[in-house]
Amino acid sequence: xxxxxxRTDDIPVGERFDYWHDLMVNTVCPMEIRTPSTADFQAExxxxxxxxxxxxxxxxxxxxxxxxxxxxxxxxxxxYHLTLPLSGRVDVAQRDHRTVHYRRQMYIVDTYQPFxxxxxxxxxxxVGLEIPKDLVxxxxxxxRRLLAxxxxxxxxxxxxxxxxxxxxxxxxxxxPADAARLGGILTDLLNATLAHNLDVEEELSPTARRQxxxxxxxxxxxxxxxxxxxxxxxxxxxxxxxxxxxxxxxxGEETTVSAWIKQLRLEHIRRDLADPCQRALPIxxxxxxxxxxxxxxxxxxxxxAYGVPPRDYRNVTSGAAPLGTTVDA
Length: 329
Known about the structure:
Layout: E1 4-7, H1 16-25, E2 32-34, E3 43-50, E4 53-67, H2 69-74, E5 79-87, E6 90-94, E7 97-101, E8 105-110, E9 115-132, H3 140-143, E10 151-152, H4 156-170, H5 176-198, H6 206-223, H7 232-238, H8 243-250, H9 257-273, H10 283-289, H11 295-306, H12 310-317
Antiparallel strand pairs: 1-3, 2-4, 3-4, 4-9, 5-8, 5-9, 6-7, 6-9, 8-10
Helix pairs in contact: 4-5, 4-6, 5-6, 7-8, 9-11
Organism: Streptomyces corynorhini
Protein name: AraC family transcriptional regulator
InterPro entries: AraC-bd_2, AraC_XylS_family_regulators, Homeodomain-like_sf, HTH_AraC, Tscrpt_reg_AraC-type_HTH
């Protein structure tokens, strides 16, 4: 798929800010911008179309961008705009609410209402998402409660949305057939994240509600891997669903809940064993950190998954002793 890229590096130094200003006042949702210094202004933005959603990986020098009542009267697009900061700091204000956002602290604004945003450091990097309002399953009055508030992309369901947007930003633009499919996935992640943060999952459609529950279950498992008491029954109880319903959710993934928990734990341990900085930690300590309280059980599981005992794996991957050399567990 052909992608569109705007970058000030392609423009003569003295014309760069004017170029970016003209770009911003001629978008679907025009905005006025200001910067502390127009000299050698730096900015770059890609446009990635995923179905009806538009993703904007962006990097900006210090900048303030504002959507005024006058601009809203002249252009009235029916959009929300969500931003995932990846570096820097962004101050956001809409509907008499102002918040500060750092890395992976997302926010959403309504383009039909005035807002102003500013990155107060030297620069910021982030991913924007332009969302037609009819793709959001929640009523506008419900979404309004979340405008300009922090939406965590560091944990829970929001982490899945943040990870997805980050991968889009770091990858080449997809083929048209893949773009439509990815747009559908992104829409589901967005609706699940908004509903979870507003605690209104019951207002989603049955399909979106199941998707939201599945994401919530997986986020809960990932965040509690170190707890030895994490079992399928504990996961079901925490989400007020039956064990059979939980197992049914995983049936289409060709695995079981217990097997997925064990797989995730082993993968974390495998990475830790390959980390030279953790070489001094006993293997039994690393295993316990990820929920394995019985060392012999862990060793059997690790060997079944990776074909070698954990000691030998650490020796090879961390550049220590040759394969087969025994070290303390």
